Write the structure tokens for this entry.
Amino acid sequence: MSEKPIRVLIAKAGLDGHDRGAKVIARALRDAGMEVIYTGLRQTPEQIVETAIQEDVQVIGISSLSGAHMHLFPPVVELLREKGIHDVLVIGGGIIPEEDIPYLKEAGIAEVFTPGTPTSAIIKYIREHVGSTSEE
Amino acid sequence: MFDKTKLEELEGREQKWKDQVKSKIERYPERREEFETDSKITIERLYTPVSLKDFDYGEDLGFPGEYPFTRGVQPTMYRGRLWTMRQYAGFGTAEETNQRFKYLLEQGQTGLSVAFDLPTQIGYDSDHMLARGEVGKVGVAIDSLQDMETLFDGIPLDQVSTSMTINAPAAIILAMYIAVAEKQGVPPHKLKGTIQNDILKEYVARGTYIFPPGPSMRLITDIFAYCAKNVPNWNTISISGYHIREAGSTAVQEIAFTLANGIAYVQAAIDAGLDVDQFAPRLSFFFNAHLNFFEEIAKFRAARRIWAKIMKERFGAKNPRSMMLRFHTQTAGCTLTAQQPSVNIIRVAFQALSAVLGGTQSLHTNSYDEALALPSEESVLIALRTQQVIAHEIGVTDTVDPLGGSYFIESLTNQIEENVWKYIEEIDKMGGAPKAIEKGYMQKEIQDSAYRYQQAVESGEKVVIGVNKFKMKEEPPKGLLKVDPAVVERQIEKLKKLKEERDPRQVAEALKHLRSAACSDENLMPAILEAVKAYATLGEICNVLREVFGEYQQQIVV
């Protein structure tokens, strides 16, 4: 394949230190041929967006298991839009109640993956949606 | 343990049996070519005395309450007293958590276990910028002594034992507990409980660190020294494998890395000039009860035997209490599924049973809805009732170490021990646990196991009911706990009021003392206690320490 690999930023947002899922996904995406950057813990939405721009990624995957997703996920999309970036696919994951998902999607999080999602489903989703956002 | 000629005869008979079975298997193959535990220990078709050829009852098992404590740390175990039933609880404000505590005590819980929210665990007050969205979420928000007073309001601290999951700011929270007790008229020597206080595993697996390893270890040994003198019944650390396991380790890695961290704490305390038998009896452990039933039971038994040997042979402890590995167990949160959540009740029951058969001193059973939200009152009640059924209805508490002597359990215990020693030797070669962590060694080993586990689930090799087998179409679950979003405002308002009402001169003075103590090598506990009593906030106290000690920068290993 001569096609350029998809670049993904996996980010741990907020103070939550449970990064097993984030790291497993980072590895699965890498094994699937993507270029993956992992931010490490305790990232603010501002830091996540800054890294995403510096690293020129096409996808941001944000993870939070502490229940802070409603406060941490939407600002990532807002900050991207403020900077005029509309082609970065933002997806989220973690312990996220079903009832919060419509709000997150409305805020521009393209898809939310909850516990039990196979990594293959995430890989497939990224391949099919990279370069598009929910606005389109 | 077995007569030599009889063993030889048996060996011959076993071989014959194996030959017969072989021809059967050619016609009716077994479900799998190879069976193994989650730690990749091969499981044989059958265990017999031949599997335990070199087994020495006296040396390998001994008697309960005696070295090497394989069969338990108490001579009568649960015949004398049941384990402490201790549900980890905390959310929202101190008021709400105080209500949950009282509810659990009314339902027959026998100890408390406090979950703190992330800002508290990382040393930020509720009004800190980084606390946004996190206040009161995964635990209770504690900003000052005032919140601790509310948290334990109406709960006599001389009558309960309290476990507190707090690590980086453990000294501060312990000081608050001592101060609350004092206000209730309870002297420190009557206090019973545990602070987790295990910073090494935070760098490895849980992420709620503040300071770099050096000052963190000093805070820990300061607590050991202070409590040995002033709070003698307090468990000064709970060396935790739980989070190592949740991060994806195997059972063998869980024990190996936890005990390696334990070795580092003991060494640090000895290096700080403490006598091993002075602090070691107050060390406690915290393990995970996962799904592979027999491996988990064997794991607990092996851990006790290895720790006893480490304390006796490596550190020259003389007091048998220093050699006893006492532990709290929690069932494995990471095994709970969001799919068909009621199935989690069954998983938890088996995990809890393995902890009891493994001889735990205290137990938390997870609630079935935890892959979805914090436990509701209904789900936590079922979790507690699960323990009560095991304790009172099924008879497994009537004899000590009921599985001791099982050919399978003893073989597995031996193999786990052997594999754990290999890791400990490897870590010793690197210069000990802190060095191994610095190199990212433990982190890498754990991640490899986590990834293998995930792949096994996705390939279907590892069955998870409701996730990759026996799937069902489901309605979203109802009745999940939601933390009131107004918690933040209430907490910030309270904090503001406190700052207006307290004596600012007293606070400034106390923080000044703390700073000079931190810059010297005097024990930090008295200065922290003074600051806490002056109603300095957790954030203020941590900030002083941050300025003196600096902050830890994470090693990213993927």
